[in-house]
Design brief:
Helices cover 53% and strands 8% of the residues. With 379 residues, the protein is of the alpha/beta class. The chain has three domains: 89 residues, Transferase(Phosphotransferase), domain 1 (Orthogonal Bundle), CATH 1.10.510; 207 residues, Rossmann fold (3-Layer(aba) Sandwich); 43 residues, no CATH class. A five-stranded parallel beta sheet has the order 2-3-4-1-5. The model has no long low-confidence stretch (mean pLDDT 86). The structure holds adenosine-5'-triphosphate and magnesium ion. Adenosine-5'-triphosphate binds next to helix 7, strand 4 and helix 18. The site of adenosine-5'-triphosphate has 18 residues, from helix 7, strand 4 and helix 18.
């Protein structure tokens, strides 16, 4: 989650397959999709040798290494895995048992991997998660992440996707677009679309409960929403026609229904982290909706996190929300140096070159450069 997929994802799948093959059980069981995602992210499977004592402990360790939560902690190469399995086989053939050894001792990655972790943002992540914890049991909150372009606002916000899901929350996101400023509620609409996709993967029983809640909230004007969020029809079904109103009245109606809809989807057992990225390009209707959602203490179980470029001149935006909580991101040179140190341990020359650049370039450019480098074939 919030990490790119690579060959180590296949190691995870291989681990799960071998797990079932050897124990005759799946590592996690749940009829509920969200619960299942939660298990894969947060729960540790029972070690195979504890389910079937005839499985050698070393084989059990190898499977758990394949199924490590972080790709960095899994095997990094097929050769490393093969050597460990071969050793188990040799021991079993010669002695009928596998004696303990250090797994992964000959496991080295054939490609240069820079960790995708976020450097030096622990305090900010913790501030966002604390806000989520408060909003999970109380009135809605807004956290504004400000900083200039490339400083890591979006990267920071997406870093809480996994911990939010771990806490059984829904993480949904949308972004305002420079070229779609005349589309009202653009980022809200995208977020709701992503929520609908999540809800559609739930059990029929849960989906029926959502259908009931949402239909009750939108009443007979659900078409206001399905006109702009067509996939919502897959949950609440086709909606009856609605009376034509003047543009201003129609805007008020949409604002009202969207507010009711958001209140209906924010439920205690599944609080929502709603990301509205690139707020500098938001339309005024969206800003007003955020304000309305924040001002009514009856709105609960919702954390809105919005990223805002504070180097772009758009005087009205922050003013409207300036009394709410802001996290300002600045360049963290200690973090830049930490990235460079990490790279230096893999590739001394590249590390040295980046260290020289760090004095002349800005942070975003250095990180972009690193990512370009990573994307090169065979880099
Ligand atoms: N602390 C960090 N550790 C590792 N990578 C980072 C860090 N901060 C930013 N990055 C990387 O730098 C790049 C730029 O970050 P990001 O897109 O989050 O910036 P932004 O502030 O959202 O910019 P914009 O205002 O243009 O949307 C991304 O590739 C991101 O993963
Ligand atoms: Mg961004």
């Amino acid at each position: 989650m919030n990490r790119s997929l690579d060959y180590r994802t296949d190691f995870y799948s291989l681990g799960v397959t071998l797990y079932e093959l050897l124990t005759h059980e799946r590592p996690f069981k749940s009829p509920d999709a969200l619960e299942m995602v939660h298990c894969h992210i947060a729960k540790h499977p029972i070690p195979p040798h504890e389910i079937r004592p005839e499985i050698p402990k070393m084989i059990s360790d190898i499977l758990l290494r394949l199924m490590a939560k972080n790709a960095e902690d899994r095997y990094q190469s097929t050769i490393g895995l093969k050597r460990d399995l071969q050793r188990c086989l040799d021991d079993l053939t010669s002695a009928g048992m596998v004696s303990p050894f250090d797994i992964g001792a000959e496991d080295v990655s054939a490609t240069f991997q820079i960790s995708e972790k976020l450097y030096g943002r622990d305090a900010e992540i913790s501030a966002l998660m604390q806000a989520f914890a408060r909003a999970s049991s109380g009135p809605s909150e807004l956290m504004m992440v400000a900083g200039y372009s490339g400083v890591g606002k979006s990267a920071l916000i997406h870093e809480i996707h996994k911990p939010v899901t771990e806490k059984m929350g829904y993480f949904i996101s949308g972004k305002f677009d420079q070229f779609q400023r005349d589309v009202p509620y653009h980022a809200f609409i995208q977020s709701v679309e992503s929520l609908v996709t999540l809800l559609l993967s739930e059990t029929e029983k849960r989906l029926a409960a959502w259908r009931k809640n949402i239909s009750a909230a939108v009443g007979n004007v659900g078409k206001v929403l399905t006109d702009i969020i067509p996939n919502l029809e897959q949950i609440i079904g086709p909606q009856p026609d609605i009376p034509e109103l003047s543009p201003v009245e129609a805007r008020h109606r949409l604002n009202y229904v969207l507010g009711k809809f958001i209140r209906a989807i924010c439920q205690k057992p599944h609080p929502i982290a709603l990301v509205l990225d690139d707020l500098q390009w938001a339309d005024s209707a969206s800003l007003n909706l955020i304000r309305t959602l924040m001002d009514n203490p009856e709105n609960r179980y919702l954390l809105i996190i919005s990223a805002y470029r504070d180097n772009e001149v758009s005087p009205t935006h922050p003013a409207l929300l300036s009394d709410l909580e802001w996290v300002t991101l600045r360049v963290d040179m200690a973090a830049v140096n930490e990235v460079i140190e990490d790279i230096r341990t893999h590739d001394t020359n590249l590390g040295e070159s980046l260290a020289k650049l760090a004095n002349n370039f800005d942070y975003g450019k250095i990180l972009a450069l690193i990512r370009e480098y990573k994307a090169l074939p065979g880099s």
